[in-house]
Amino acid sequence: MKNKEIIKKAFKQSIPIMCSYLFVSIAYGMMMNEAGFAWHVALLVSFLIYTGAFQFVLITFLSSGASIVTIAVTALLMNSRQSFYGLSFLETFRKMGRKKLYMIHTMTDETYAVNCTIEDKDENSRKEMFLVAFFSRCYWMFGAVMGGLIGQLIPFELTGIDFCMTALFIIIFIDQWEKADKHFPAVAGVLIAVIALMIFGQRAFMLPALVIVSGVLIFWNSKQQEV
């Protein structure tokens, strides 16, 4: 497959992420502007940190002068779930050489979800994964800059726009459900997430749910290989 075809295919795969990231990152850039930070600060933060949910929290931390320890611990807790995402791509990232460092840094909920739909068949598919991650990061940084600039000119309300990220995951979930032959992983994930939500609450359910789901799926996968 030629490079142009790979780029075109990767861009097509990244379109759902673009639709989500542009709106949310524009809102982020506008909030940074309202907090007194210029557009280039929003760009720098997006380049160095690149984790959407925490970047919104970081605005409050930067405005209030929170300590580095507080910021670091909060970032760790909010993004610890992404440590589990990499388990699905250990072999794939290993085959990507030096690019694996970039893939690890740019692993987000959205890029993980989309790259799960790309089978690791050959080097072309790994190039496609890399480009999806690259395009997605560019979308976020571009939106952050646009939001910072727009915030200086046209302040308007964006309440509820972040729901597009939820809609993205619902669409990807349905797509995976239709393609998969076995639905146990999806059903297990939903049930465990709901139970964890009921037990641990909305703010603390994510990490225990991921730990339990990972354990269940590792055990299930080992049993499937024995059959």
Task: Explain what this protein looks like in three dimensions.
The protein has 227 residues and is an all-alpha fold. Helices cover 78% and strands 0% of the residues. The protein contains twelve helices and no strands. Helix 1 runs parallel beside helix 3 (52-64) and helix 2 packs antiparallel against helix 9. The longest helix has 32 residues, at 3-34. The chain is globular. The model has no long low-confidence stretch (mean pLDDT 82).
Give a concise summary.
The chain is mostly helical. Helices cover 78% and strands 0% of the residues.
Query: How do the helices and strands follow one another from N- to C-terminus?
Result: HHHHHHHHHHHH
The major pleated sheet works out as: none
Q: Report helical residue fraction.
A: over 70%
**What is the tally of helical segments?**
12
Arithmetic mean pLDDT: 82
The fraction of residues in strands falls at: under 5%
Number of β-strand runs: 0
**What is the gyration radius calculated from CA atoms?**
19 Å
- Principal-axis shape equals globular
Instruction: List segments where confidence is low: pLDDT < 50 over at least 5 consecutive residues.
Output: none
Distance between the termini: 36 Å
Secondary structural class: mainly alpha
